[in-house]
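Support request from a user on the community tier.

User writes: "When I paste my structure tokens into the form, the page sometimes reloads and wipes my input. The last time it worked, I copied everything first. Here is what I submitted, just in case something in the input itself triggers the reload:"
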């Protein structure tokens, strides 16, 4: 019987499970959206929401509690400065889980877990990535044109040197 045994074991021992959840919550705070399996997303949801509640409290004690769980000082700063103020008037339900199909290797059901209101951040991230890809494509095109010009100049020099 599993009476009063709350939480997900995720097929791991206690220390491995705790490390996994801390890493996922830290990544979620930093990225505001993480793709993982559905059971892992459901397991980190209470921790992610607890972190927002600590951020909304805003006290030094709350900041230290969040810092003891999150593994990156940048995550703590982002939580208290960006994420928590977004939910100032909301009484809970800060995350959403969106199922996104099945993984190719083992057919595990995947899902995105994200903070509500992270659409702007995701859109900005997509825009930056598109700009980066355009710059990279332009650089590759320029390099290909230079290589073509170099080959063409070499082929023009070759017949003259044979005489």
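"...and here is what came back when it finally went through:"
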């Amino acid at each position: 019987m599993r009476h009063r045994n709350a939480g997900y074991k995720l097929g791991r021992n206690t220390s491995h499970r705790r490390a996994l959840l801390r890493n996922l919550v830290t990544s979620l705070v930093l990225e505001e959206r993480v793709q993982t399996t559905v059971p892992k997303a459901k397991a980190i949801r209470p921790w992610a929401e607890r972190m927002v509640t600590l951020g909304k409290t805003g006290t030094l004690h709350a900041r230290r509690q969040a810092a003891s769980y999150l593994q990156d000082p940048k995550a703590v700063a982002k939580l208290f400065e960006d994420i928590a103020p977004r939910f100032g008037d909301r009484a809970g339900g800060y995350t959403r889980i969106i199922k996104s199909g099945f993984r190719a290797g083992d057919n595990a059901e995947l899902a995105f877990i994200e903070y509500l209101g992270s659409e702007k951040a995701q859109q900005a991230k997509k825009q930056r990535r598109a700009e980066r890809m355009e710059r990279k494509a332009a650089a590759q095109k320029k390099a290909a044109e230079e290589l073509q010009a170099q080959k063409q100049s070499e082929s023009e020099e070759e017949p003259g040197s044979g005489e």
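Agent notes: The reload is a front-end session timeout and is unrelated to the input. Strands lie at 33-37, 95-102, 109-115. The first strand starts at residue 33 and ends at 37. Escalated to web team.
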